[in-house]
Structures are given as structure tokens and as C-alpha cells.
Amino acid sequence: MLETEYMLEKHRRDMQFLTMFQSEIACELCGATLAPMDFLLKNQLVVGILEEVALEICILGKIYGGVHSVCRGAIDMMATPLLPAIADGILSRFRICNEYFHLCSHPVIQELSADEYVKSRIAGKPETIKHNDYVNSLYRQIANDTNERAIVQSIQISDPHIDF
């Protein structure tokens, strides 16, 4: 996946001259060119064929030990959501035509900063929890409290499953 991203980014830089062709027609042509790939990545028949090919590769390549049931389980879990996610993600019309080739003037895809998001979320919080020492401060407060506390015991079981 990263290799595909790298190749598309390199190709985008190499194809920078395409921005002089930026127009509605160029945008629509780019989208029309990608429509068959989008259809194939979302078509259930094609997805089924790709899953069977992946199953054979898994078995013959002894991936997960080449055990049929384990390979089938891994493919069922990963393949069905993966291809549509690729079609709607790195190989989407908007991503390729807009971000990589800059042929479309809309929609503008804005990259978000996690740091800026966190700062905006914290801005409306009370002053006592704006700092990194909030949890440590709670622990100090609890440690300094001399009142007796009720002890609660619990058990959490998560993600139970059978591995063959």
C-alpha cells in the first residue's frame, strides 16, 4: 500500500504540467477513466474471484501455515472490506484526479493536523485538565486523601476467539 502511495506521489510530481489542463472536462475525463477500476474493485463477482485467487496463494505459499480454514478466515475478515476501501481511498477518483493530478478544482481536500485538532478540543476544556499532568494530579490527590475507599473488583474479557 505504501509503495502504491509512493508511486502515485512520484507520478503526481512528474505530471505537474497537467495542471495547465485543469478544467471540468479534464476532471470528468479523469473520473471516467477511473470508473472501470472503481467498478471492478467494488463488484462482488470480481471480489469473489480475487478472494479465491488470494486463497490459493495463501495455501500454496503456506501463508498462515497454508491451512485452508485459517487462510479462508483471514481472507473473509480482510478482503471483503479491503477492496472497496482501496477504491474509496487511495485509488478513488477524488484522490487521483484532485490530489495527484490536480485536474479538478473541487472538492478541495484539506489535510488535517492531529495536533491542531487536539489543541482545538482542549481549548474549551476547564483549566485544570488542559495540562499533561492532569492524570498524575488525580493520582496525587487520591494518594493524599486519607479517607477509606471502597475497593471494587472487576474482570474484563475481550476478544475471545479460537485460533486453530
Could you give a short description of this structure?
The protein has 164 residues and is an all-alpha fold. 60% of the residues lie in helices and 0% in strands.
What does it look like?
The protein has helices spanning 2-14, 24-42, 44-60, 68-88, 93-100, 114-123, 134-144. It is an all-alpha fold and 164 residues long. The chain has 2 domains: 2-100, no CATH class; 114-144, no CATH class. The relative contact order is 0.11.
SSE layout:
Layout: H1 2-14, H2 24-42, H3 44-60, H4 68-88, H5 93-100, H6 114-123, H7 134-144
Considering the chains and any ligands shown, give keywords for the structure.
164 residues; mainly alpha; 2 domains; flat
Order of helices and strands: HHHHHHH
Q: Radius of gyration, rounded?
A: 25 Å
The low-pLDDT segments are none
How many structural domains?
2
Structural class estimated from helices and strands? mainly alpha
Largest pleated sheet: none
Can you give the helix content as a percent range? 55-70%
Strand fraction equals under 5%
State the separation between the terminal residues, measured CA to CA.
28 Å
The total strand number stands at 0
Mean pLDDT rating: 82
- Tell me, what's the shape? flat
The helix count comes to 7
